[in-house]
Protein backbone atom coordinates (compact mmCIF):
# COMPACT_ATOMS: atom_id res chain seq x y z
CA UNK A 1 0.00 0.00 0.00
CA UNK A 2 2.88 2.38 0.81
CA UNK A 3 4.46 1.68 -2.60
CA UNK A 4 1.21 2.51 -4.37
CA UNK A 5 0.88 5.86 -2.56
CA UNK A 6 4.55 6.66 -3.28
CA UNK A 7 4.14 5.81 -6.98
CA UNK A 8 0.99 7.94 -7.26
CA UNK A 9 2.72 10.82 -5.48
CA UNK A 10 5.70 10.63 -7.86
CA UNK A 11 3.38 10.52 -10.89
CA UNK A 12 1.50 13.56 -9.57
CA UNK A 13 4.75 15.50 -9.08
CA UNK A 14 5.97 14.54 -12.58
CA UNK A 15 2.64 15.66 -14.10
CA UNK A 16 2.83 18.98 -12.21
CA UNK A 17 6.39 19.74 -13.42
CA UNK A 18 5.47 18.80 -17.00
CA UNK A 19 2.51 21.18 -16.86
CA UNK A 20 4.69 24.01 -15.49
CA UNK A 21 7.36 23.45 -18.17
CA UNK A 22 4.74 23.65 -20.94
CA UNK A 23 3.40 26.90 -19.51
CA UNK A 24 6.91 28.38 -19.26
CA UNK A 25 7.65 27.37 -22.87
CA UNK A 26 4.46 29.10 -24.08
CA UNK A 27 5.29 32.26 -22.15
CA UNK A 28 8.84 32.35 -23.55
CA UNK A 29 7.45 32.30 -27.10
CA UNK A 30 5.46 35.48 -26.58
CA UNK A 31 6.89 38.69 -27.92
CA UNK A 32 7.18 41.38 -25.27
CA UNK A 33 7.21 44.59 -27.27
CA UNK A 34 6.91 46.58 -24.05
CA UNK A 35 10.25 45.24 -22.83
CA UNK A 36 11.76 46.00 -26.24
CA UNK A 37 10.52 49.59 -26.08
CA UNK A 38 11.91 50.03 -22.57
CA UNK A 39 15.29 48.56 -23.55
CA UNK A 40 15.47 50.84 -26.58
CA UNK A 41 14.48 53.86 -24.47
CA UNK A 42 17.28 53.05 -22.01
CA UNK A 43 19.81 52.69 -24.82
CA UNK A 44 18.68 55.73 -26.84
CA UNK A 45 16.62 58.07 -24.61
CA UNK A 46 16.87 60.95 -27.09
CA UNK A 47 15.12 58.96 -29.88
CA UNK A 48 11.37 58.45 -29.30
CA UNK A 49 9.76 55.63 -31.27
CA UNK A 50 7.05 56.44 -33.81
CA UNK A 51 6.10 52.93 -34.99
CA UNK A 52 7.17 49.29 -34.65
CA UNK A 53 7.20 46.23 -36.90
CA UNK A 54 7.82 42.85 -35.27
CA UNK A 55 9.02 39.80 -37.18
CA UNK A 56 6.74 36.77 -37.25
CA UNK A 57 8.87 34.84 -34.76
CA UNK A 58 9.42 37.89 -32.54
CA UNK A 59 13.22 37.61 -32.76
CA UNK A 60 13.62 41.15 -34.13
CA UNK A 61 11.79 44.46 -34.02
CA UNK A 62 12.30 47.36 -36.40
CA UNK A 63 11.41 50.81 -35.06
CA UNK A 64 10.76 53.99 -37.02
CA UNK A 65 11.99 56.89 -34.90
CA UNK A 66 10.68 60.45 -34.62
CA UNK A 67 13.40 61.88 -36.85
CA UNK A 68 13.06 59.26 -39.60
CA UNK A 69 15.95 57.08 -38.44
CA UNK A 70 15.61 53.34 -37.93
CA UNK A 71 16.09 51.43 -34.71
CA UNK A 72 16.66 47.69 -34.61
CA UNK A 73 16.12 45.42 -31.61
CA UNK A 74 17.23 41.79 -31.50
CA UNK A 75 15.80 39.47 -28.86
CA UNK A 76 18.31 37.70 -26.62
CA UNK A 77 16.22 35.86 -24.08
CA UNK A 78 14.30 38.40 -22.01
CA UNK A 79 16.57 41.28 -23.10
CA UNK A 80 16.91 43.11 -26.40
CA UNK A 81 20.11 44.24 -28.07
CA UNK A 82 19.29 47.70 -29.43
CA UNK A 83 20.96 49.33 -32.42
CA UNK A 84 20.52 52.63 -34.20
CA UNK A 85 20.96 51.84 -37.89
CA UNK A 86 22.94 54.03 -40.24
CA UNK A 87 21.19 53.71 -43.58
CA UNK A 88 24.45 53.94 -45.48
CA UNK A 89 25.55 50.71 -43.76
CA UNK A 90 22.42 48.65 -44.48
CA UNK A 91 21.67 46.54 -47.54
CA UNK A 92 18.18 45.05 -47.93
CA UNK A 93 16.32 42.85 -50.40
CA UNK A 94 12.58 42.24 -50.14
CA UNK A 95 10.87 39.08 -51.39
CA UNK A 96 7.22 38.94 -50.38
CA UNK A 97 7.02 38.58 -46.62
CA UNK A 98 10.74 37.99 -46.18
CA UNK A 99 13.37 40.66 -45.99
CA UNK A 100 17.08 39.85 -46.28
CA UNK A 101 19.14 42.49 -44.52
CA UNK A 102 22.91 42.75 -44.25
CA UNK A 103 24.71 45.16 -41.97
CA UNK A 104 28.25 45.57 -43.35
CA UNK A 105 30.67 47.10 -40.89
CA UNK A 106 28.61 46.17 -37.82
CA UNK A 107 28.48 43.24 -35.42
CA UNK A 108 24.98 42.28 -36.62
CA UNK A 109 25.12 39.27 -38.98
CA UNK A 110 23.29 39.15 -42.32
CA UNK A 111 19.83 37.80 -41.57
CA UNK A 112 16.53 37.03 -43.28
CA UNK A 113 13.50 38.33 -41.44
CA UNK A 114 9.98 37.04 -42.09
CA UNK A 115 7.05 39.30 -41.31
CA UNK A 116 3.35 38.51 -40.87
CA UNK A 117 2.36 40.34 -44.07
CA UNK A 118 4.16 41.48 -47.20
CA UNK A 119 3.06 45.07 -46.39
CA UNK A 120 5.17 45.06 -43.21
CA UNK A 121 8.20 43.82 -45.17
CA UNK A 122 7.61 46.52 -47.80
CA UNK A 123 7.37 49.19 -45.10
CA UNK A 124 10.71 48.15 -43.61
CA UNK A 125 12.25 48.03 -47.09
CA UNK A 126 11.06 51.58 -47.73
CA UNK A 127 12.47 52.70 -44.36
CA UNK A 128 15.85 51.19 -45.20
CA UNK A 129 16.24 53.07 -48.48
CA UNK A 130 18.88 55.79 -48.05
CA UNK A 131 16.64 58.38 -49.73
CA UNK A 132 13.89 57.75 -47.13
CA UNK A 133 15.91 59.62 -44.50
CA UNK A 134 15.27 63.37 -44.53
CA UNK A 135 18.19 65.34 -45.99
CA UNK A 136 18.57 67.45 -42.86
CA UNK A 137 17.47 65.85 -39.61
CA UNK A 138 16.23 68.51 -37.26
CA UNK A 139 18.13 67.96 -34.01
CA UNK A 140 17.29 71.44 -32.78
CA UNK A 141 14.14 70.21 -31.01
CA UNK A 142 15.34 69.28 -27.51
CA UNK A 143 14.06 66.08 -25.93
CA UNK A 144 14.26 65.19 -22.26
CA UNK A 145 12.96 61.90 -20.92
CA UNK A 146 11.10 61.25 -24.17
CA UNK A 147 9.22 64.57 -24.01
CA UNK A 148 9.57 67.63 -26.20
CA UNK A 149 10.74 70.55 -24.06
Explain the overall architecture.
This protein has 149 residues and is α+β, with helices and mostly antiparallel strands. The chain has two domains: 30 residues; 102 residues, PH-domain like (Roll). 33% of the residues lie in helices and 30% in strands. The protein has a four-stranded antiparallel β-sheet, with helices on both faces. A hairpin with a 2-residue loop joins β3 and β4. The longest helix has 28 residues.
Provide the fold topology:
Elements (H helix, E strand, L loop, with lengths): L1 H28 L3 H11 L5 E6 L5 E6 L4 E7 L2 E7 L5 E5 L2 E5 L8 E4 L3 H10 L15 E2 L2 E2 L1
Antiparallel strand pairs: 1-2, 2-3, 3-4, 5-6, 6-7, 8-9
* Topology-level CATH name of the largest domain: PH-domain like
Amino- and carboxy-terminal Cα gap: 75 Å
Supply the helix-strand structural class.
Answer: alpha+beta
Q: In CATH, what is the class of the largest domain?
A: Mainly Beta
Q: State the total count of DSSP E strands.
A: 9
Name of the CATH architecture of the largest domain: Roll
Helix content: 25-40%
Beta-strand residue percentage: 25-35%
Strand count, sense and barrel status of the largest sheet are: 4 strands, antiparallel
Shape: elongated
Please compute the radius of gyration using only Cα atoms.
22 Å
**String of helices and strands:** HHEEEEEEEHEE
Count of distinct structural domains: 2
How are strands sequenced across the largest beta sheet? 1-2-3-4
The helix tally amounts to 3
Nearest-integer average pLDDT? 81
Instruction: Give start-end ranges of low-pLDDT stretches.
Output: 135-143, 145-149
Oligomer: single chain
Amino acid sequence: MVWLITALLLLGIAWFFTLMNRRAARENQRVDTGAAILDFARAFPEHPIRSLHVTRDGAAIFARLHDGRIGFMQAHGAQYACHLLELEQVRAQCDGRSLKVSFPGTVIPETSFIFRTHKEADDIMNWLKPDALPAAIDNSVPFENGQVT
